[in-house]
UniProtKB/TrEMBL annotation:
Enzymatic reactions: 2 nitric oxide + NADH + 2 O2 = 2 nitrate + NAD(+) + H(+); 2 nitric oxide + NADPH + 2 O2 = 2 nitrate + NADP(+) + H(+)
InterPro entries, per database record: Cbr1-like_FAD-bd_dom, FAD-bd_FR_type, FNR_nucleotide-bd, Globin, Globin-like_sf, Globin/Proto, MRET, OxRdtase_FAD/NAD-bd
Obligatory cofactor(s): FAD; heme b
Protein name, UniProt field: nitric oxide dioxygenase
Classification via CDD domains: Mb-like_oxidoreductase, O2ase_reductase_like
Keyword Cell membrane assigned: no
Length: 368
């Protein structure tokens, strides 16, 4: 571990249990010093605060891996073009971030920690700015909603078509804004592989009082316009691998898994693919019919649905991570995991127990 990485992790430990306060102070300080930046952010800042901390932690985790560090920050820089961010904004953000960390770390904060964060942030911002300046794509894509179908009380599947070509890889996600909740961007996985029509499919579950998810499930209609950010995420296929594949999906985490399976139908002949699709009740298995049709058409594909809280369900019972365990061994497989945060974490723990090397497990960590 480099000195920089060590200093970042040590200093982060001083504020880790105060993340909400750090984020709140950071935004308050930034907006106080630069009121014009407030218009770049949504009125409701609760989710935005979480995203800031998630980006910081992810960057810290990848700083020791130059390739992952560059890939993650490059995609983040391209995505931030939708906020009309310019290089000068990065300077102000860096000042506010270091001040917030220093304030809540208290007496244990040192000059070494201060300089480490300045150095790390400088490296992060340089990569983000360079990626944004080199990007020839639009800052945002305007897309028209084509179809909208309620698959369950709180789940909708809809399709849209961007006005300009949007190049992405199966398994990636984009941030999305709708007219019903302006300036509120939320990440959603694209549920289909790239196709000639340019259409994109999304699966959305309305999460409690979720501002955006609720609007997308209950209010969105064909003809509405959406705005999409740049594609992000690393949960993509390695076509060089010859290992068989296991996909584990929970709820609408099925979206990127379905896109990966669609891509595999275009070229795969030799790799067995096992899809485990879990939900609390059978209503959560909202796309099982289409998955079953794919399995019937492709002998190398198997689908195992499961319910964790539906005693009358005739199929597999239990948490999806435990169901996967029952079907092993899996040490020689590539894994893709997507779904609610708790489900992803449980599955990652189970795969570690089963001896699956972490380098063979792909997942993207973001909350919807």
């Amino acid at each position: 571990m480099s000195d920089l990485s060590r200093l970042l992790k040590e200093s982060w430990a001083l504020v880790e249990d105060k993340q909400d306060k750090v984020a709140g102070y950071f935004y308050a300080r930034m907006f106080l010093s630069n009121p014009q930046l407030r218009d770049l952010f949504p009125v409701q800042m609760d989710v935005q605060r979480t995203r800031l901390l998630s980006a910081i932690v992810t960057a810290m985790q990848t700083i020791e891996d130059p390739e992952r560090f560059a890939e993650y920050l490059g995609s983040l820089g391209r995505d931030h073009r939708k906020f009309q961010v310019v290089p000068e904004h990065y300077t102000e953000v860096g000042k506010a971030l270091v001040e917030a960390l220093r304030t809540f770390a208290g007496e244990d904060w040192s000059l070494e920690y201060d300089q480490a964060w300045r150095d790390a942030y400088q490296a992060m911002s340089e990569r983000m700015i360079a990626a944004a300046e080199a990007d020839t794509n639009p800052p945002v894509w305007h897309a028209e909603v084509l179809t909208h179908e309620r698959r369950a009380l709180d789940v909708a599947v809809f399709t849209c078509r961007p006005m300009e070509p949007l190049n992405y890889r199966a398994g990636q996600y984009v941030s999305l804004e709708c007219s019903y909740q302006p300036r509120l961007w939320r990440p959603f996985s694209i549920a289909n592989a790239p196709n000639k029509s340019g259409e994109l499919e999304f699966h959305v579950r309305s999460l409690g009082a979720g501002w955006v998810s609720g609007a997308l499930v209950r209010r969105l209609v064909p003809g509405d316009m959406l705005r999409l950010g740049a594609p992000m995420g690393t949960m993509t296929l390695d076509r060089k691998s010859t290992r068989d594949i296991v996909c584990v999906a929970g709820g609408t985490g099925l979206a990127p898994i379905k896109a990966l399976v669609q891509e595999l139908t275009q070229f795969n002949r030799t790799r067995w693919v096992h899809v485990f699709f879990g939900g609390r009740t059978r209503d959560d298995l909202y796309d099982l019919e289409e998955l079953s049709e794919l399995a019937a058409a492709h002998p190398w594909l198997s689908v195992v649905p499961a319910c964790s809280a539906d005693e009358g369900y005739a199929g597999e019972q239990g948490d999806i991570s435990d169901v996967v365990d029952r079907y092993g061994p899996w040490r020689e497989h590539d894994f893709f995991v997507a779904g609610p945060i708790a489900m992803v974490r449980a599955t990652l723990r189970k795969l570690t127990e089963l001896g699956v090397p972490s380098v063979r497990v792909k997942y993207d960590s973001f909350s919807k």
